[in-house]
From TrEMBL:
Substrate binds at N73, H79, D86, I100, S101, R110. Transmembrane segments: none annotated. Catalyzes a trans-dehydration via an enolate intermediate. Belongs to the type-II 3-dehydroquinase family. Keywords: Amino-acid biosynthesis, Aromatic amino acid biosynthesis, Lyase. Pathway: Metabolic intermediate biosynthesis; chorismate biosynthesis; chorismate from D-erythrose 4-phosphate and phosphoenolpyruvate: step 3/7. InterPro entries: DHquinase_II (IPR001874), DHquinase_II_CS (IPR018509), DHquinase_II_sf (IPR036441). This is 3-dehydroquinate dehydratase. The keyword Ion transport does not apply. Its EC number is 4.2.1.10. The keyword Ribonucleoprotein does not apply.
Amino acid sequence: MKLLLLNGPNLRLLGTREPDIYGRFTLADAEALARATAERLGATLDCFQSDVEGELVAKIGAARGVYDGLVINPAAYTHTSVALRDAIAASELPAVELHISNTHKREAFRHVSYTAPVCVAQLMGFGLTGYALAVEGLVAHLRGAAR
Ligand code: DQA
């Protein structure tokens, strides 16, 4: 089972970016936790981060037939991007949308997700731990255990 973890804009700044909201862990910490979780469950996980919407769209477009599922933290594009939503839908891959913070406790513009309706699940508010939980949930979904 091959999984792809995608992180969107500004998440490469984790560790120093608004630590009261996002904590002090780094993107490398999050990717390492997600990869270790996947490997513990007998899967492999590749990681990709970009600040550029089109690069994320292209990566999802190339994922079909290569990966079995996606974990994606679309970051700010969650709240704006029809292109990312369409890319996830077109991939026909099961995707878990992940957020470090609970976006419903924050500004109203963060309460809307363009991408969640084309994902199998949305997970938020667990900080770093969410990267492990999202992988666990995706693997369970792919194995049929979450149905
Ligand atoms: C985020 C929440 C988004 O609203 C924000 O734009 C981010 C990070 C999160 O992981 O909590 O960049 O996706």
